Amino acid sequence: MNAEPSLHPPSPADDVVIRATRPNDYEGIAALGNMPGYRWGTLRLPHQTPEATRKWIENMGPGNVSLVVEKSGRIIGSGGFERHQGRRSHVAYLGMGLHDDFHGQGIGTRLLRELIMVADDWMNLRRIELTVYVDNTPAIALYKRHGFEIEGTHKEFAFRSGAFVDAYAMARIKP
């Protein structure tokens, strides 16, 4: 069997698996990006095409990590980071999100822990950066629980749902 082993095998109590993104995951990831709640916390525009997502997966750089979360064989989350180059090669920018129906179940925590483990134990990253909208209270709390700190505020960071919204710059320095 050629299947890649799961980074996070399911426990007997659930069927959630966290694994590397595969080229054929493009439709599931595009479907996530088109969900109103998922899109609300990202910089994605409505109507993301599966073809654009496929190209993004195919063009991923060698220093980047991309994971998906599956439940019962269905993609319900994604996350990853893009490693910087040169004098900032110790830094990566993180992004993640979950299906609208799976918030508050600990799945985001599992995904973030997996990403941090890869960053700390396999890539020797010292700093993980992210931006999060100031009104995304659950995400801010999740990041803070995992050692991220607010370093500043980007005023009018993005245009979302007809209005500008601020975002926090957050980072975690490897302890």
From TrEMBL:
<dbReference type="InterPro" id="IPR000182">
    <property type="entry name" value="GNAT_dom"/>
</dbReference>
<dbReference type="GO" id="GO:0005840">
    <property type="term" value="C:ribosome"/>
</dbReference>
<dbReference type="Pfam" id="PF00583">
    <property type="entry name" value="Acetyltransf_1"/>
</dbReference>
<dbReference type="InterPro" id="IPR051531">
    <property type="entry name" value="N-acetyltransferase"/>
</dbReference>
<keyword id="KW-0808">Transferase</keyword>
<protein>
    <submittedName>
        <fullName>Acetyltransferase, ribosomal protein N-acetylase</fullName>
    </submittedName>
</protein>
<dbReference type="GO" id="GO:0016747">
    <property type="term" value="F:acyltransferase activity, transferring groups other than amino-acyl groups"/>
</dbReference>
<keyword id="KW-0687">Ribonucleoprotein</keyword>
<feature type="domain" description="N-acetyltransferase">
    <location>
        <begin position="16"/>
        <end position="175"/>
    </location>
</feature>
<dbReference type="InterPro" id="IPR016181">
    <property type="entry name" value="Acyl_CoA_acyltransferase"/>
</dbReference>
<keyword id="KW-0689">Ribosomal protein</keyword>
